[in-house]
Amino acid sequence: MNTINKQHILTAEAYVRPFFERDHSGHDWGHIQRVRRNALFICKQESCQNPQAVELISLLHDVSDPKLHETYEVGQDALEKVLNELSFTRETELLVKEAIVSVSFNGGHEKSLPCTEAAIVRDADRLDAIGAVGIARTFAYGGSRGAKMYDDEIRIREKMTEKEYRSETSTTVHHFYEKLLKLKNLMVTETGKKLAHERHQFMESYLKQFLKEWKGQA
C-alpha cells in the first residue's frame, strides 16, 4: 500500500466526514478522529513505515459497518463509492478492503490481519471502545438502539455466532462482558497492549461501582 499518498487522505476525508458527522451512536466523526490519532501514535511507536496507509484505513474503517446502514449491501456500496473516488490499483483496493474487514470484532469472529497497518488500526479502534471514552460510547450506542442499560435476568453470552451477536437481546452492561473486557487480551501491537491496560482497569472499576449501585448497595 505504498502507493497511498496525501491526496488520497484528503479525498477520503472529504467524502466520509459528512456521513459520520450525522451519527449519534458513538461512531461519529469524533470516533474516526480518535482512531486516526491513536493509530498514527501506535504507527510511530511501532516504527511502521507507512503512516499514510494507516491514516487511510482509519478514515475508512467504519464506512461499510453493518451497524450504520440499513442493510449489509448498502454498507458495501458506500465503501465501493469512496474507493472509486480514490482510483487505486486493483491490488491496493483489495488490500484496503481486507484491512477494513479485519478491523471489525464481529462478535469474536474476527478476520485475519493482512498487514501491519491493519493491525495498528484494529488496536486503535479497540482502544476507543474501552476506557472512559469507550464507556461513554457504549451507552451512547445502546441508547441509540433502545437497549436497556442492564437486566440481571438476561444471561451473559459466552459464545455466539456473528448473527446472534448482532441480533439477540442483550443490554449495554452485558456488552462489556461480551466484548469490551475481552479486547485487552486481543491487542496485537506492543503499544496497543500497554495503552489498553489502564483503560481496561478503569472499566473494571466502573462496572464494580455500577453493579453496586444497581443492587442498592451504595
UniProtKB/TrEMBL annotation:
Gene3D superfamilies: 1.20.58.1910, HD-domain/PDEase-like. InterPro entries: HD/PDEase_dom. Residues 24-139 form the HD/PDEase domain. SUPFAM superfamilies: HD-domain/PDEase-like. This is Phosphohydrolase. It comes from Jeotgalibacillus marinus. The lineage of its organism: Bacteria, Bacillati, Bacillota, Bacilli, Bacillales.
